[in-house]
Specification:
Blueprint lengths: L1 E10 L2 E11 L4 E5 L6 H8 L7 E5 L6 E4 L11 H6 L3 H19 L6 H19 L5 H11 L16 H14 L4 E5 L7 H14 L2 E5 L3 H7 L2 E6 L2 E5 L3 H36 L6 H13 L28 E10 L2 E11 L4 E6 L5 H9 L5 E6 L5 E4 L13 H6 L10 H7 L16 H13 L5 E5 L7 H13 L3 E5 L3 H4 L5 E6 L2 E6 L2 H17 L7 H12 L3 H42 L2 H4 L2 H32 L1
Parallel strand pairs: 3-7, 3-8, 5-6, 6-7, 12-16, 12-17, 14-15, 15-16
Antiparallel strand pairs: 1-2, 1-4, 8-9, 10-11, 10-13, 17-18
Length: 647
Amino acid sequence: MISVSDLKVEFAAKPLFSGVSYVVNDRDRIALVGKNGAGKSTMLKIICGLQQPSSGVVSVPKDTTVGYLPQVMKLTDSRTVREEVETAFEVMHRLQAEVEKLNNQIVERTDYDTPEYQTLLDRFTHESERLQMMGAGNYQAELEQTLLGLGFRREDFDRPTSEFSGGWRMRIELAKLLLSHPDVLLLDEPTNHLDIESIQWLEEFLAQRSRAVILVSHDRAFINNVTNRTIEISCGRIYDYKVKYDEFVKLRAERREQQIRAYENQQKEIADAREFIERFRYKPTKAVQVQSRIKALEKIVPIEIDGLDNKAMRLKFPPAQRSGDYPVICEEVAKSYGEHVVFSGVEFTIKRGEKVAFVGRNGEGKSTLVKCIMGEIPFDGHLKIGHNVQIGYYAQNQAQLLDEELTVYDTIDNVATGDIRTRINDILGAFMFGGEENQKKVKVLSGGERSRLAMIRLLLSPVNLLILDEPTNHLDMASKDVLKEAIQAFDGTVILVSHDREFLDGLVTKVYEFGDGKVREHLGGIYDFLQKRNLDSLADIGRMKGGSSVSSVQDQIVEKQSAGKDDYEQRKQQERERRRLQKRVDDAEKKVGKLTAELKELEGWLATPSGAQNQEMFTAYGKLREDLQKAEEEWENAMMDMEEKKD
């Protein structure tokens, strides 16, 4: 579909990448990955024709359409949501008008036997079939389905777009792009403004209804669920892997090890050559060899190693005083703005050391409740902050409170204490402020860079209650890993507002779901919650009729099937039992495999002349067969127990 040939991009005579060639095929789902600044967004802009490369060619067939969603775009505010999204069907509307015009001409003419009439009839038939294939008969239903999937309610359809925040208006642009059905979709961080349910809907849409996709995203779960190919931009080149992201990570680690070995061998070769040159530079008998080594050194192309492996970085929050047993207690907490009730009747208790997630659609009150906990806004009900609680709060406006006249390095140096001060450069490098970047002043940083800097400051502050509101939006995957490991090692209490499932996985043990003015508690991790919501609600959403919103239908179903804390405890017990049985099956299977391999090896040994005369080997062979039989019986029993549990 699209061919990229020998692409090169330079900025101020410095190459961003060069010699880039690859082909985008139909049904390719490509994850474009690399460190910030590697050129991912630039690559997308070149493919869609918004930017020209320094050299090279991007070939797009004449009949191939390309749709592009940038991270930031200019948005119009002159229409309602429905009217704005309907602009995606402009081509179809023009074709509809053309078909109607042709139909009128056919009705008016009576020269049925002439070639001109037959030509007109053939054209009308062809254009009518095109219109039918474009879905002219049900485009309104498709429009509404897409808006609902992206989190809008039906009552939002006729509201002016000017009433929505920038994040929601980006969703409108995404809806227009998806409904235009381009042959190739280019998506730059499409999940930044979506909640978990909308991300899942987008995953299904891209998997089932799109042709070719190239996307840039730091949401690991999203790209794993969507893509089947990974192209990495690194050291000014690309590496093309025909695998999902998780498999790519393993292959990249192997490639980097090979690079390191090759680099070390090259450095040794260079050092040996230089030593030879210095030793024999002034000996006439070695002049020819010295000149040969000098020329060889000049011809060596230095081997580059991919950026430092940030997973080796370890950060720990500094120790803080122990808080009370219950850092946060909510009793009948409610918040309204005029007649609009954000939430009411909120009741929960967060214990010391718990790590919990606030999830739900945008606008359902997650950040509002956080502000109530922080005491930033008034509310109704009782909200108690426990004894000796020291709160560390990360929100988007935290970045605006940084001293703009300080450098990046000084901003961190001012809050770092103890031996952490000796590792400031490493910490800044892990969060993409390496080298000269840490000498920039805060006032020249972008919004995303300021957010990352504010996150580093928080990581170095002694607190025992962390409240993080969408902390991963501006972090790449390596930085997210550093942050996740720091939170896992944190012995205090954590409240995470996030839509990043991969980030939440393994971090939280309880999920609070915001929706329909209520806050519901779910015991278990984020994937326990998502699995339950899928099983309980997807079929019902598919059968939804009339004006009910996705969120309200889901809430009603969950209300019926989640009758209090005891039910959650029972489900968790069942899940623990299932995992125990699965482990038993896995262990038995491993044992069978191990014994089978040992038996096969021993059989090979016994087949040799020396082995056939060894009585001890025959005794060991008999013992192995007995052990294998017992292991197989254990495996069968474990499988039967698991099947009975399912029933």
